[in-house]
Write a structure and sequence with these properties.
Strand order of the largest sheet: 2-4-6
Number of helices: 7
InterPro entries: Epimerase_deHydtase (IPR001509), NAD(P)-bd_dom_sf (IPR036291)
Number of strands: 7
Domain NAD-dependent epimerase/dehydratase: 2-83
Structural class: alpha/beta
Family: Belongs to the NAD(P)-dependent epimerase/dehydratase family.
CATH architecture: 3-Layer(aba) Sandwich
Mean pLDDT: 89
Strand content: 15-25%
CATH superfamily: NAD(P)-binding Rossmann-like Domain
Radius of gyration: 18 Å
GO molecular function: GDP-mannose 4,6-dehydratase activity
Protein name: GDP-mannose 4,6-dehydratase
């Protein structure tokens, strides 16, 4: 719908496709906050697809910088950009990082080989980098950004405690 308004009426539109974003204030229903909340409560959590499920992940601040760049650049109007840090990581690796940060047992992680894993889709951000000069910043140190996110959730228990999750 948005794209058709751009084509028909010249409405300045830019479409951004993002990698899996994570960071503070994220819905507890999403992967990383779900793992964090379960680990904080010492509850087991399933990893669908076992150890092979990959994600293309990026810290939210890097996506925000892409949005700001597009908003202030009329050359971006009418374009479609993929926004990705190019970091491909297994879900089990993300869980390992979170469990290590929280000093929790890896036994909390249940690798479910039988559950359907999501097909992996990695994005290529070459176009936004070349045309607009966008650069990955914080996502380059995923461990630190996951640690920052874990600490944020630890300090903001009201954000997630008591919220129903679908495992």
């Amino acid at each position: 719908l948005t794209w058709s308004y751009h084509q028909r009426y010249g409405v300045p539109v830019t479409i951004l496709r993002s990698a899996y974003l994570f960071g503070p204030y994220q819905s507890i229903q999403r992967l990383i906050p779900l793992i964090i909340s379960h680990a904080l409560k010492n509850q087991r959590f399933p990893i669908a697809g076992g150890n092979g499920d990959l994600r293309d992940i990026m810290y939210i601040d890097d996506f925000i910088s892409a949005v700001e760049l597009v908003l202030h650049n009329p050359e971006a109007y009418g374009q479609i950009y993929n926004v990705s840090a190019g970091i491909r990581v297994r879900v089990a690796e993300i869980a390992d990082i979170i469990l290590a940060i929280l000093d929790r047992s890896k036994n909390l992680m249940q690798l479910d080989e039988q559950a359907e894993s999501k097909s992996f889709v990695g994005l290529d951000a070459t176009k936004i980098k070349n045309e607009l000069g966008w650069k990955v910043d914080k996502s380059q140190d995923i461990h630190s950004m996951v640690e920052f996110t874990v600490n944020w959730f630890k300090e903001h228990k009201e954000w997630w405690d008591g919220v129903e999750t679908t495992d």
